[in-house]
Amino acid sequence: MSHVLKVGIVVFPGSNCDRDVAYVTSEILGWPTQLLWHEETNLSNYDLIVLPGGFSFGDYLRCGAIARFSPIMAAVEDHAAAGKWVLGICNGFQILTEAKLLPGALVRNRDLHFICDRVHLRLEAKERPWLQAYGHQTVIRLPIAHGEGCYYADAATLAELEANRQVLFRYADAHGNITPESNPNGSLNNIAGICNAAGNVLGMMPHPERAADPALTHCPSDHTLDGLQLFKSLLNAAVA
Amino acid sequence: MAQFRAQVFVTLRPSVLDPAGVAVQAGIHHLGYTNVQSVRIGKVVELNLEASDRATAEAQLTHIADQLLANPVIETFRIEVQELATAAG
CB 3.0–4.6 Å: which of A14, A104, A134, B17 could bond A55 by disulfide? Predict the structure, then answer.
């Protein structure tokens, strides 16, 4: 039984949240953590691969479109196919959809603004491993920071996502109600994060690594550690 | 080998919202042309390439557009190819 996960964080040209994730997994959780340049091709050493936020390849053409062809992505596909954990955050989510590891696409925010805010999310499909450490909590709050976070998929794909319980996070109000007002970017079905059918690949626009440092906590109910539980969930799943 | 110049036109599928197009439409209306009823923004990618013949060039361009230049989930594309006259006579 392992009490740590071995973490590899992919660094593309233009990634800028790679060190934030590494701080959480290495300094806060004490897990062995390695930053991996996007030309790396061997990921056999890692339990969890993180595609971090940022602006890979300048977001040129479409967000994530060019990163998808980096040499490391073939290894990421193999890692996912082997049932190991893959987490794409923000730009990482965009890369996972471009790579077809997750369905749908992320397009320009409905109101064209780049949004930097903290949003409430309702936890869905709590049987999924990524949400195991949240206990009875059903609403969390995480930071978002994106210009292209509007989730789009055709009607058939959306229906399949819902039927398979692949939606893990939905934009909500503080009480967990899914409303148009609580949808910051126009995402269909208020979708903020989805996993693949097998459940080992997760993409999400909110930033769990930005809500994970106990030094920034003032009280237990202030949501400042809501992101840390996501990482801890994987340990629970590994032990279970 | 022959030289070709190609233009790949990438446009959003009709089912995908184009908030940038809506914003530009508002600008056009402010310019005075309130008769403009819809605006959709796409991309044009210009490529020069060498290929043995036109069919080969078109097949390669279709693959490039389908795999990289456009995302078929949200976009469609159209390709125009023109063979360039060779300089040497």
Answer: A14
A99 pLDDT above the threshold of 70: yes
Q: What percent of chain A has pLDDT over 70?
A: 97
Q: Which CATH number applies to B2-83?
A: 3.30.1280.10
Domain range summary for chain B, segments of one domain joined by +: 2-83
- Residue A219: is its pLDDT beyond 80? no
Among residues A237, A163, A208, which one has the least CA distance to residue A5?
A237
Whether the per-residue pLDDT at B10 is higher than 80: the answer is yes
- The single residue listed with the structure tokens 């042309």 is B33
Contacts 24+ apart (CB under 8 A), A20-26: A20/A52, A20/A207, A20/A209, A20/A210, A21/A50, A21/A52, A21/A89, A21/A209, A23/A209, A23/A213, A24/A209, A24/A212, A24/A213, A24/A227, A24/A228, A24/A231, A25/A50, A25/A231
pLDDT of residue A2: 62
Chain A residues close to B69, C-beta within 8 Å: 61
Q: What domains are there in chain A, each with its CATH number?
A: 7-239 (3.40.50.880)
**Which candidate in A38, A148, A209, A223 is catalytic?**
A209
Look at A186 and B71 and tell me if their CB atoms are within 8 Å: no
CB A134 within 8 A of CB A123: yes
pLDDT tens for B16-67 read: 989 999 999 999 999 999 999 999 999 999 999 999 999 999 999 999 999 9
Tell me whether residue A79 is one of the annotated catalytic residues.
no
